[in-house]
Amino acid sequence: MNQNIRYSLPWLLLGLVLTFAVPSIASLLPEKDLSSWNVLYLLPTFGFGLWGLSWPYRKQKAGALLFDAGRTWQNKILFWVGIVESGVATFVTWLSIERMIASPTTVERLLQMPRVIFWWTIAILLLSLGLSKLELRKNGFCFLYTFLPWRRVSAYSWEPSQPDVWTVRVRRRLLLWSNLISIRVPREGRDEIARIADTYVSRR
Questions:
Q1: What three-state secondary structure class fits 135?
Q2: What is the model's pTM?
């Protein structure tokens, strides 16, 4: 589990910065500075949306499906985080509607929209990640909208204390990222995952 945290930490920190820092900075800007106010919300919204929508195209590089392992423990956690985020997005939407009603001009009413889109984009992305599955494919495996080619996997193992935790050692591209990924897979798919992984990589 610690290995998985080290791998995920940079992504979690980036998500926290974008989720909480952007609205905080936007709230400090002068209300008359409309263009900057919008950009702070629209840029991460565009980035999140493009990353999520591009997944079907990026997934094509993975090749034919060999085994659908189903939703992992991480998927289920992200789904519930997405449920909570949906509640936050609903609350933000309610506040924005109140401000839209109180706003005297059409421009000021429209300026409430980027914030609503921002929060709903995050919620939908988290829910989508939560509903995605671990898939082993011909050219690599897909996990959380990310394709990892087999050529980047140097070894794998199963945790002795947790036999359903698949730990993969990857050839990392950045020093900041850990070279270990731990995925808690459905127990019924463990043997098939091991069989396929043995074909492409070696055990540690």
A1: strand
A2: 0.77
β-strands 140-143, 146-149: how paired? antiparallel
Q: Which of 1, 58, 2, 11 is nearest to 177 (CA)?
A: 11
* Residue from 135, 137, 122 nearest 78 by CA: 122
Q: What is the pLDDT of residues 19-33, one digit of tens each?
A: 555 555 555 555 545
What string of DSSP letters covers 4-68? Answer: HHHHHHHHHHHHHIIIIIHHHHHHHS-TT-HHHHHHHHHHHHHHHHHHHHTHHHHHGGG-SEEEE
Cβ-proximal residues to 66 (8 Å cutoff; 6+ apart), any chain: 136, 137, 138, 196
Closest CA to 151 of 175, 171, 179: 171
